[in-house]
Amino acid sequence: MKRLSFALRRTPWLAALALALSLSATTGQAPAAWPPLTSYTADDMREPANWPNDPAYGYDEDRNGQWNYYSFIPTQKAGSALRPEETAAGMSVDLAWRWTRGDDRVRIAITDSGIEWDSDDLLDRAWLN
């Protein structure tokens, strides 16, 4: 291990290659049909095979996951009741990804009425349209 550490310090390109290989091995690949096909429906998005490779996206029995993006209702625990008008757990962002995954040049800030406008870290940074 000491030899490897020494070699990585002596040859920066080798360190970069080692980092790139370790990252590619841990991140995995998105499913073949990702982003979702334009023909996908909320029922299609219910299938884990159609989810992105983000490990936080899925849900489990403890209701973990990014349910606020779902276009479907996840499997409910016994005794959970849904209102008839409930058709999605979230904003259906997963279906919007069929068309675009965004643009890094677009900045969006969501603020609420709890802003302390005179806070030092916001002075001269907050602006209104």
The main pleated sheet reads as:
none
Helical segment count: 4
Following the backbone from N to C, one meets helices and strands in this order, namely HHHH
* First-to-last CA distance: 56 Å
The total strand number stands at 0
pLDDT < 50 runs, ≥5 residues: 16-28
Percent of residues in helices comes to: 25-40%
Structural class: mainly alpha
Look at the structure and give the mean pLDDT: 69
Q: Tell me what portion of residues adopts beta-strand conformation.
A: under 5%
Please state the overall shape, judged from the principal axes of the Cα atoms: extended
Kindly provide the radius of gyration, computed on alpha-carbon positions and rounded to a whole number of angstroms. Answer: 22 Å
Total individual domains: 2
Polypeptide structure, described:
The protein is mainly alpha-helical. The chain has helices spanning 2-10, 12-27, 42-45, 93-96. It starts with a helix and ends in a 33-residue tail after the last helix. The chain is built from 4 helices and no strands. Mean pLDDT is 69; it is low at 16-28. It has 2 domains: 1-30, no CATH class; 31-111, no CATH class. The radius of gyration is 22 Å and the shape is extended. Helix 1 (2-10) packs across helix 2 (12-27).
